[in-house]
From TrEMBL:
This is GTP-binding protein. It comes from the Archaea. InterPro entries: G_OBG, GTP-bd, NOG1_N, NOG1_Rossman_fold_dom, P-loop_NTPase, Small_GTP-bd. One of its GO terms (molecular function) is GTP binding. Keywords: GTP-binding, Nucleotide-binding. Residues 163-331 form the OBG-type G domain. NCBIfam families: small_GTP (TIGR00231).
Amino acid sequence: MNPFEKILRPPEVERIVDISARRGMRSSRGGVGLSSARRREIDRVRRMMDTSSAILMSVVRSYPNLDSIDRFYLDLLDSLADRNKLKHSLGALSWASTTIRKIKREIISSLRQTSDPVEMERLRNMAIARMNSILRRIEPEINYLRDIYSELRKIPDIRTDIPCVILSGMPNTGKSSITQRISTGKPEVAPYPFTTKGLLLGHMDLGNFRMAQVIDTPGLLDRPLNRRNKLELQAITALKNLPGIILFVLDPTETCGYSVREQMNVLRDISKTFSEKGLIVVLNKKDIWGDFPDKVRETLAFLSGYEYIEVSALTGDGIDNLIERIRNLLRSF
């Protein structure tokens, strides 16, 4: 599951200061006399600085240990954020939280030793100023964590302890239809940082109480790798670390809008990139092959050396054979 699902977004510095100051002043104790004034100022400083310190540490603790998360999620993290900058930012918040608590102890110690109300007010204002100074010092780190929050939360929930069936192929070849055909129930559309349509995630029954995940990543595995930017390539690297197989959906009728040659170029890229995984070529749209006999013959000639299965996602023809082949390949996982 996404280890960043429960991370917290830090408030802006101005908001942290405002929250802390309000809580400090709201907690003021009543009473008259020197002792009451001292207790009141100590209480203000303690609550104000404990609040700002706690806000910072709650953000730090909401993050997983970056050295212990699964490689798949680590690669996705690297595609969305600078891991070293993230570690530095979390370290900066932790440092600030500790420093604010240290300043709190120093100010409270000074408050306990003075009998001058004017000095008490000065010390309280000093606490506010030093707290603000610390928060301003880490403002770039706070803003960085605010910026990457949404993207990290959108990382899909994918289990890395069960096998995956990852679909690839050019747009409009029928990947989504096949995902729905081989999945149990209705696949879910999950947010995903690299697709506009979202990740299509389903599950497949392997028998003997075993399940596989079925993953269609529209916009990610449907173009040649030389047309990918650095972030997309990193996301593809992350998919390589998932256990499982690749289904490459190919449309021999070319009604998808792409020639067989274009589709074969992507297939060669995918088979090379995911060379350590099992790969099945799924020849889709069998229900209309009769209208495109030359294209079908051309496709079959191109596929010499590739394992392929003929299906129609529209009618369901060949889907049972495809499911059985997938189960056989995933028995070793």
